[in-house]
Amino acid sequence: MVPSSLPKTSQMVHITKFWWLMLFLVGVAFGQRRVNQACILANGSSGRCIRIGECSKIVELTTRNVLYSWETQQIRAVLRACESDESSSDPIVCCESAQSTPTRRTLNSGVAPTTTTAASTTPIATTRRPTRVRVTTQRSTTARRRTPTTVRTRSTTIRLDHFKDVLPARCGEQRPSWNVWSDIEDDDNIHVWAVYLEIQRPKSTTKGRCVGTMIHERYVLTAAHCVHNLKLENIKLYFGLFLISTLAQCLADRVCQERRAAELIVHQDYNSHARLNDIALIRVNEAVQFTDDVRPACLPLDYLFDESLANDARVLSLGWGEYQQGTMSDSKRIVALNVIEQEECGEQLRKWQRFNASMLFSVMCTVGVQAGQDVCQGDSGAPILQLKDGRFFLVGVVSFGPKCGMSTGKAGMSMRVSEYTNWILTNLKRIDGGS
């Protein structure tokens, strides 16, 4: 016998299932309705809601192991603009232009192995525990940077919480100034990431100088030839400095900060004769305090970043190097540079008789925008900076070149930072376990 009606409990179950089904269908329909509809990005520009796999810029971000916090905020913002979220199985984002992700060439990236070994066995006495000068010795591998080459078509779930917090929350923020591109003193102190390196060479009565760039509260990036074969006590680092002659007062006023080197990490394939892989990290003995006068520059984590460094791209450098013939600058000075296309760069390397095929994509060639203006003696290790989206990115590290940009027909050479990003991040990750 069939009952004429369902029990009340059974009716409630069916009603509940019905409403859950309706909510699901509405959600699906709503999500489908949002695809290809107009949206507004956080910066006020217009875009369209598309599936995340079709937005090349966001795909690039989500395939990285490391993001700046402002980049994770950017991902969340484009999700919110289309009323989607990172837990969705098929997220929709507000994309400024729905382009397929381009394929990038294979480069000699100088990627370090995931493990770093110590080569030096001579302990250096410090005020803390004995510290070794660590130089990685394993061979680097020629690897293709992880690059998305196809548009994703399957369901994708974003997990922003898996990005390790190894980079500073803020970096490279542009400060108001009229002196961004001039060959002039940085008296507005807009380049607060510049680090003055005071170097005492063995058997030398005079102190040398190099420049570094702060990329982290514990790390400074510079040229390998500045620190190669030095002991830790031979290097002092000064943050927030403008005038060398006022260093003592600057320290007393707590505008400047002094640190010592706790570890020197020279690229494992550095060649001092050919200046191959002329890049190094200095880990300081104590974390630097971020202030208005001391902050880090941004690293070029975007694998497409180099595409913006086309021929004649405008960049800048700064330092305390030679200003007039035979005279070192007391003040931090800025110089505007143009990037030379890679073919011409290769010809310049041949003029130096240092050409090596593996150098072609790891070296950046620059010339002064104005004749006679360039980086000079004492500027080794200085940053090559590019202003992009209101932030300064560290795109090069000054290595070698002609005498102070004089009319020699030769360009200055810098290490292209994007080719060493994985090597840098590999070493930054080691700080998670402490000092």
From TrEMBL:
Residues 111-123 have a biased composition (Low complexity). One of its GO terms (cellular component) is extracellular space. Residues 104-123, 133-153 are annotated as: Disordered. Its main location: secreted. InterPro entries: CLIP, CLIP_Serine_Protease, CLIP_sf, Peptidase_S1_PA, Peptidase_S1_PA_chymotrypsin, Peptidase_S1A, Trypsin_dom, TRYPSIN_HIS. GO terms for molecular function: serine-type endopeptidase activity. Its EC number is 3.4.21.-. It is found in: Secreted. One of its GO terms (biological process) is innate immune response. It is an enzyme of class 3 (hydrolase). Residues 1-31 form the signal peptide. Pfam families: CLIP, Trypsin. Keywords: Disulfide bond, Glycoprotein, Hydrolase, Immunity, Innate immunity, Protease, Secreted, Serine protease, Signal. Gene3D superfamilies: 3.30.1640.30, Trypsin-like serine proteases. The clip domain consists of 35-55 residues which are 'knitted' together usually by 3 conserved disulfide bonds forming a clip-like compact structure. Belongs to the peptidase S1 family. CLIP subfamily. This is CLIP domain-containing serine protease. It comes from Anopheles gambiae (African malaria mosquito).
